[in-house]
Amino acid sequence: MLDDVDQQLVHALQISPRAHWSLVGGVLGIDAVTAARRWQRLTDQGLAWVSAAPGAGLSGHAKGCLAFVEVDCESGALLDVARAFTALPYVVTVEHVTGDRDLLMTVMLEDVGTLSRWVAGHLDTMEGVRSSRAYVAGAVFTEASRWRLRALTPRQAERIAQDVPDPEPAGEPDALERKLMVALSADARVSYTALAQECGSSPDTVRRRVRRLFASRMVQARCEVSRPLSDWPTAIILWAQLPPDQVTEAAQRISSMREVRLCAGVAGRHNLMVAAWSRSVQDTQRFEAELVRTAPRLVVEDRSIALWPMKRSGHLLDQHGYRTSMVPVNPWAVETGAEL
């Protein structure tokens, strides 16, 4: 398990993923070198990492498409199919799950038209894929960048939060900002100098652009911890139905629940999707009961448990949940294989 300082370190970076080590160390009561060395050990061992992906600032301006895709595989083909999907830069998350689908994926693309062409021309023609279903996300009420380990005191959390930039309006990213978004997905703490070299710009320009990307939430960074080390080793995904005029109010209450990592409106057989971390398989039943108490009109219509989260926000995980490598997230790198 992570010790107390490691947990505080992860919590601090969940609040401000690019915080300087001097600030993090000061809040934790250790020096900056010790904070950096501890973080390096966690990342080297695949225990924790900081990633970034296109955020709500894009989708809120019709500049992106977030979809959840279920895939059924031919018998014996699941691992080969999953490996093929994990290699794709726009398939952000891949999970082997229980229930009425073999794989559940999160896909980020430029627009719904691209999603349609990709499903028709690539996904449904892949060897080993028997069938698929795609659900486009509408409002995302909460997502994993807002989930917290809660290891800091309120005062410590407040000090770290002062480092977070003030909100700014979002816009359409230009070519440099797209390059920066892809580079940040590999390591959201990478230096401005390294980003400038990779993206062909100056450190000062990169600093301004990165600040804008985060302040506008066009990019959302998150500090992840290997799930078995978080006291929340079981992931559950629920699909639910609510009266349309109650979705927003109920989703806001659900989003405040300790276990919830994702709560999003979806267009499909159900109108709400909830993903949460739980302490055990047995505890998922308690969580579902609490969910219904939180939103009494909610009807849970389907549920799955993640057996193996193979890819999370671009980072590849082994069967124990530890990070092994990553594929930079790039919603603009899709080859649809079809013209409709």
Note down, in words, how this protein is organized.
The chain is built from 12 helices and 12 strands. The chain has helices spanning 4-15, 21-28, 32-44, 56-59, 78-86, 112-121, 154-161, 175-186, 192-199, 203-215, 247-255, 281-294; strands at 48-54, 65-73, 91-97, 103-109, 129-142, 219-225, 234-241, 260-267, 272-278, 299-312, 315-317, 323-326. The strands form 2 sheets. The chain has an 8-stranded antiparallel beta barrel, surrounded by 4 helices. α2 runs antiparallel to α7 and α8 packs across α10. The protein is globular, with a radius of gyration of 20 Å. The protein starts with a helix and ends in a 14-residue tail after the last strand.
Which helices and strands occur, and which strands form pairs?
Blueprint: H1 4-15, H2 21-28, H3 32-44, E1 48-54, H4 56-59, E2 65-73, H5 78-86, E3 91-97, E4 103-109, H6 112-121, E5 129-142, H7 154-161, H8 175-186, H9 192-199, H10 203-215, E6 219-225, E7 234-241, H11 247-255, E8 260-267, E9 272-278, H12 281-294, E10 299-312, E11 315-317, E12 323-326
Antiparallel strand pairs: 1-6, 2-4, 2-5, 3-4, 3-10, 5-8, 7-9, 7-10, 8-9, 10-11, 11-12
